[in-house]
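Late entry, evening session. Most of the bench is empty. Finally got around to the prediction I had been postponing all week. Sequence below, unchanged from the version circulated by S.P.
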Amino acid sequence: MTNQKLNIGIILGSTRQGRVSPQVGEWVKGIAGSRETANYQIVDISDYNLPFLGTTDGTETGISAWNEKLDSLDGFIFIVQEYNHSITGALKNAIDFAREAWHNKAAGIVSYGSTGGARAAEHLRGILGELKVADVRTHPTLSLFTDFENWSEFKPQELHLANINAMLDEVETWSGALKTIRN
């Protein structure tokens, strides 16, 4: 593999008003920003104005822009919040608007919710497997009770840094390995 840096997208999995995923995404990006082997960028699905899958002819510019963005990335970090024991409808919809753009790439998951978002992360793992995305084992989980003030201001505990860094190491290793398959 060349010495070219990997491009990793930090995908914000919510589009609702008042969401906290941008805070979590920026925190992850801040930790990842000092790394020499990858470029990390926030990818906000709300920027693409994706319609509901199957309700249009699929020619909206947001759909092609979404696929182009995913194509440009070597790996992903999903910021996943748990809604009714699963991922958000907006994230599932965004995932379904692409197929080949996901193939043979790696992903990490940072989840949050009342149980750390663990159930949403498990649902996401099944979806990613179908899309040929290798999800890494290390999975930082954030609690609405201990990592957020008033469920709206993100104040992570320092203990999460070790898991975030371990996950980033795994995503970079797998993203680099899978890039050789795509090339």
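Two things to note before I forget:
Strands lie at 6-12, 38-44, 75-81, 105-113, 133-135, 141-143, 148-149, 153-154.
Residues 160-182 form the longest helix (23 residues).
Will write this up properly tomorrow.
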